[in-house]
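Progress narrative, work stream C.
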Amino acid sequence: MKKINFVICLVSLVTLSLLSPAMAEGIRPGSFTLSGIIGGYTFDGRQHIETRPVYGVRGGYNFTKHWGVEGLFDYARTESTRADQDINFYRYGGEVLLHVFPDNKLVPYLAAGYVGLTRDPEGQHTVSKGAFDYGIGAKYFLTDDLALRADFRNMVFREGANVQRPGEYHDEGTGFNYEYTIGLAWQFGGKGPEPAVMAAPEPPLLQVVPTPPVQEEAPPAPVPAAEPTPGRYKYCISLNLQFDIDKALIRAEDHREIARVGEFMQRYPDTTAVIEGHTDNVGTDEHNLDLSRRRAESVTNYLVDKFGIDRSRLSSTGYGFKHPVADNGTEAGKQKNRRIDAIIDCAFDVTKISPPERLCMSLLMEFETGRAEIQPRYHDEIAKVAEYMKRYPTTTALIEGHTDNTGTADFNQKLSQERAENVVNYLVEKLGIERSRLSAKGYGASRRLAYNTTAEGRKKNRRINAIFDCVVEK
C-alpha cells in the first residue's frame, strides 16, 4: 500500500512540475471559486471494489491569498470484485487549503479536511463512514479568472468500524482510499491589492524601473506626454517660437506659428493637448524650469483667449533643459532646444491628415504570457502602421516593445525586443514596408505606465508603440 501511495504522489508531482510558473494575478483574497473535476478513485484492497472514474464539483472561498476553504461532492459508479454487484459511491465534505506562491500563474497548494464516504450497493444496506483526507494540488491560471487544476487526495479511515450486524462488530484496521483528478476552476469576486498612495517624484522623461512583484512598488513616474493612449494617437507639433531673453511674452510674429495648434484643435474638438516648454542650458536649473513653465503657460493662455479652446482641454508644463533635442554646445543647437512642443492626444483617421513632426501610436494588441507570436486577430491593428507609412513614404518608424514585471529583468528585456522585432518582420514580410524604414527596440518593464500589482495595471504595461518620425518632402 505504501508503494502505491508513493507512486501516485510521484506521478502527481511530476505532472505539476511540467507546468510553467509564470506570473499572473493568482489567488484573489475574498474571491469565491467553483470547479468541476474528473479523475479516478481507487479503493482499499480489503473493500474489494473496482477502481473507477469519479466526477465531482467544488465550491470554495479564499479568506486571504494563502488560506481558503472548499466544499466538495464526488460520485463514482463502480462494482464489487467478488460478486456481480453494482455500487454507487459518494464522497462529500470540506477541506482547508494552504496556497503556496499565491501570486504566481502556477499556484501549488496543500489540502486537509474531513469527508464522508458512502457506499450504496444494489440490494444491500448503505454503508457510510467518516474519513480524514489530505493531499496536494495545483491551479494553473489560463486567465485571471479561469484555471486548470490537478489534485491528489488520500482518505484515511477505520475499515469495518461501521460495517456490522446487530450483535456483531468487525474492525479490520486502518483503510486508505485514493483520488486523483483534473478539472477547471473559476474564480470570481475578490479584489487585488490597491497600490499605496505616494507622492510622485519630479517628472523625469524615463520611467522608474519597477520593483519585484513581492515588494511594494513605487508610484509610476509621470508618463511622458508623447506616450500614446491605446486606441488613440499623439500628434506632436514643435513650435518655432522666439522669446525675448528671460521673457515669456509671445511676439506678434509668432502668432501664426501658434495658430497651427489652435486651428488643429478647433478642427478636432475632442482632442486635448499638453503644452511643453523647453530651454537651452544657459542659467540655473531652477531658473530654466520656471522660465520654460511660464512660456508654456503663455502659449496655453493665447490658445484660450484667441482661439476659444476650452482650458480643460489644455495643460502646460516646463522641463527646463532636461530634454534637449540638439547639442547645447553650439548656438544652432541651443536655438533648437529653446522650443515649445504641443503634444496633442487625439482619435482620428491619421491617414487623412498631414503628418506632424512626430506621431506616436499605441497598438491595441496583446501577447500570450511569456510568448512573442503575433495572434491573427491583431493583424488589422498592425496594418494601421503600414497604411500610414505607405501614404507617407518618407516616414520612418521605431517599434517599441514593453512588458509588465513578470519574470526577470533579462527575460523581459529579451521578450520585449522579440515582440517588437516580430511586428517589424510582419510589416516587412506581409505588408511590404521597407526594412530600412523600420527599427525595433525592447524596453522590458523599465517604462511602466501603471502599478504591476493588479491585472489591469500589468495589462496597461504590456504594449507595443509605433513612433513615427515624419519627414515630409514638400
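Work stream C, second folded protein:
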Amino acid sequence: MFAFIASALSFCCCTATASLFSSWCGNDKPSNVPPSANSGRKRSVLLLALSVVVAFVFQYAVAPRLQPNEVAGYTPYIGTYLVETWTGGCTELSSDLVVVCSGNSGVYRASFSAFAFFILFGIAAWCRPTANREAWPAKYILFFFLCVGTVFIPNEPLFLPVYLNIARVGGFLFNIFQQVILIDVAYNWNESWLQKSDQAEIDEGVGKGKKWLGAILASCAILYIGSLVGIILLYIYFGGCSTNDAFITITLTMTVLCTVVQLKFSENGSLLSSACMTAYATYLCGVACSKSSNAECNPKLGETSVGNIIMGLILATMSLLWTGYSSTANKRVGGRDEDDATDNVDTTNSQTDPPKEGGVVVGGSYGATPANEPLSERKSITQDPAYFNNSWKLNAILALISCWYSMALTGWGSIEKRGNIANPDVSETSMWMLIVSQWIALLLYFWTLVAPKFFPDRDFS
C-alpha cells in the first residue's frame, strides 16, 4: 500500500516538475499538444534575454572575484586556474583596468555562448525547418552547459581577440538592422493610424476619422518640438567642442533635409515617420556626445544618465519584441506571412491527416495540428514546409544581437576605467559607433523617400 502511494506521489511530482519546467521554457500548452509555429521565436528571445543577465553576472559579480588579490587567487588548483583563465591577456594593464578587462571577458563568455547556440541551431533549422520550435527544454540545458563551459576556457585566443573582432563585426551589422527596424516601426505606426482614420469614416460616418489625423499631427508636433529642444540643449551642454558641434550640426541638417524631401517629393513618406526619425537621430546624437571619454567634450563624464539608460533599454527591447513577436518580423525574417502559408495548405489534407483523438496526435509527426486547438492556433501551425524554410534567419539575427550586446556592455572592446554598471560603454569607440549608426539610419530613411522616384517600376511598400 505504502509502495503504491509512494510511486503515485513520485509520478505526480515528476509530472508536475516536467510541466513546470516546460512552462518556464515557454510552452503554455498541455504536453500532448505541440507548440505553435511562432513558439520558437518567442523562446529564442527569452534565451537571449537570459544570456544578457548572465553577462551582467559575469561582468560585475564573477570577474571582480577572480582577481589575483582576491580569495580565488590564493586558492590552489581551481582558484588559481580560474584567475589565470579570466585575467589572461589583461595582466599588462594596471590593477583597475585588469578588473575591467576580465569583466569584459565575462561578457564575451556569455555572448559567445548565445552566439554559438544560435549559429548551431541556425544550421539545424537550415537542415530541418521545424527544428526551431522543438526540444526547447533540452536547448536551455545545452545553453546552460555552454555558459558553464566558457568559464573554464582561457581568454586567449578564443575571446581575446578572436571573438572580440567577430562581435565587433556582428554588432555593427545589427546596428544597421536596428535602424531598419525603427524605420519599419515608424512607417507602420503612421499607416496604422491612417487605416483607423479611414475605418472610422466608414463605420462612424464622415468626419469621424479626423480624430486619428489629429492624433498624427499632435504626435508629430510633440516629436519635432522635443527634437528642437534636444538640439538646443545639445548646443548648450556639449557645444564648444569641434567634434560635438560637427555631430549636432550634421544631425540638424540631415533631419531637416529628410523632412523637406518627405514633404515635397515623397509620395510614400509620412510626416509622422519623419518626426520619429528626427527624434531618434537627436537622441543618438545626444548619447554619442555623452559617450566621449574626453572631459573637454563631455562635461557629463562620470555621471550616470538615467534617461539614456532607459531609452537604450526601450530601443533594445523594441528590437527584441519586433524580432520575436511582430507579424511584420514574421514576414521579414520568416520569408512569408502566416496567412499566405495557411492559404497554400489544401483543405482536403484533413482526409489524409492521421487521426486525432482528444487533442492527442495519433500516428502523426510532431508539429501536426490537434483537432481541438483554436482556429487562430490552427492557422499558425501549418504543414506547409515553406513556412519554416527561412526560420534559420531568426537565429542569424539573434546571433548578431548576441554580438551587439557584448559590444554595448564593453564599449566595443575598449579598456577604459570610465563606465559603470549603469553606463558601461563610455569610450571614443562607442561614440563613433553611435554617430555612424545615426548617419546610417538617416541615409536609409532618405533612401526610402527617394527610391520610388528613381525606380518607379518597383514596389517599395
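Residues 158-204 form the longest helix (47 residues). No further action is required on this item.
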